[in-house]
Specification:
Blueprint: E1 4-8, E2 11-15, E3 21-22, H1 23-27, E4 32-40, E5 47-51, E6 58-63, E7 71-81, E8 84-85, E9 99-104
Antiparallel strand pairs: 1-2, 2-9, 3-8, 4-7, 4-9, 5-6
Length: about 100
């Protein structure tokens, strides 16, 4: 399954999570003012890591204990950043069920 990205208003939703995802390449935006990142896992042991651009500092990293163990990071105050998800930083049981929800100002 390939990554699927939707952007509505100030919310970006990414499902699939089986390939690299880059804010500028996939949405044509770079950088954004990041408000929060939420990871909805598919199963126990799902892992995701998001960096500030390819090779940048880690913005968000989560390992979930089960499919109900949603992880959220709120940036207060919001930060301006690129967003990059490297496929090597993601381990998901069912990419179709897992998703990232990114909100920006």
């Amino acid at each position: 399954m390939a990554n699927t990205t939707t952007a509505t208003g100030q919310v970006i939703t990414i499902t699939g999570l089986d390939a690299n995802w880059d804010l500028e390449t996939d949405l044509g935006h770079s950088p954004i003012v990041l408000s929060s990142i939420e990871f909805v896992p598919s199963d126990s042991g799902d892992i995701v890591s998001i960096t500030a651009g390819n090779g940048g500092a880690v913005l968000f990293k989560a390992r979930c204990s089960n499919e109900y163990d949603q992880k959220t990071k709120v940036f207060n105050p919001p930060i301006q950043s690129d967003i990059y998800i490297g496929a090597s930083g993601v381990s998901i049981a069912d990419g179709a069920s897992a998703m990232l929800i990114i909100t920006f100002a």
